[in-house]
Amino acid sequence: MKGWLLRNPGKLEDPSIVKIMKVVEELHVDLTVVDPLTIHVVCDHDFDGKLYVGDEIMEVPDYVVAAFFTEKNYHTSAALRMLESLGVLCINSYDAIKNVDDKLLTFQLVAESIEAVCFPKTLLVTEYTEASFVSKLFDYPVVMKVMHGSKGKGVVLVNNEKELDNLISMSTASEIGDQIIIQECIKASSGRDLRMILANGKFVKSFIRQNEKSFRSNLAKGGHIVEYTPPAAVIEAAEKVAQLLKINMGSVDFLFGENDTFYLCEANAMPGVAFDIKVMFADLMKQVKDRPEPLWKKRLREGGKTC
Is 250 left (phi over 0), alpha (psi -120 to 50) or beta? Predict the structure, then answer.
């Protein structure tokens, strides 16, 4: 089976990518690094089985691992949709990446469809947002974060209205290039959260990310892992969220509230450094084998044309 890792070849130093490439070498997996920005997006009803990548003609892969971050734009999204339309197993799909990248959209989808899953009250900051208005909706402290941040970057704990007013003024004046949201602070979860790892949308393992020196639990901010067995209800909630957001492989994170209440924190469509990559590839191979033959392959095999 042939796969593509969609990633700029000059940006392979991320720890999760390093881990993937190490396991690929150990397992002798046929995985080619392809820069998604070099993929030519062609939509042809009589597709002939050829994909154009830069100056090369390449065969359609059996699966792709979408590991691009800074390259997310209309082009790379269209390339991923093209591969999906050709029957390629995409980890993860265009829809999944869209659903988890936008933290506000994640909560809106959950609010619409899964009543049993709690999440922090969230407000989108605009040029019309005043700190005095926020103070009417929230108790302090509140959490202020960029919409598309990761690894704890762009997340700030705000203790009072004056601090918030300064931060709102700074964010709206600086044109940081991303949306800002304000969230209810789940105080009982300060410095820790629960990460639920999923493969093929099903629970695999879980652990607590804990940081005694910061309210942010991210490993990139000094957090560490503590093994944890979650309640059955949380496993069920994580799988429901994964199904709703169309996550194949990734994680769903929860915050610890009072009285054994769990709050959805966010979801991730890219397996992190703590993900068992060997499990990932074993599950990938099984999913590829179980997929039906794409229509274009059947047409080429039978020597037919549609138009």
Answer: left
193: helix, strand or coil = strand
* N-term to C-term CA, the chain: 30
Using DSSP, state whether 234 is helix, strand or coil: helix
Name the region of 260 (left: φ>0; alpha: ψ -120 to 50; beta: rest): left
Q: What is the CA radius of gyration of the chain?
A: 21
Cis check: omega of the bond before 8, within 30 degrees of 0: no
- Give me 259's structure tokens: 């009285």
Establish if 29 belongs to a structural domain. yes
pLDDT-based confidence at residue 152 (cuts at 50, 70, 90): low
Q: Identify the CATH number of the domain in which residue 40 sits.
A: 3.40.50.20
Closest CA to 264 of 121, 96, 69: 121
Report pLDDT for 70: 65
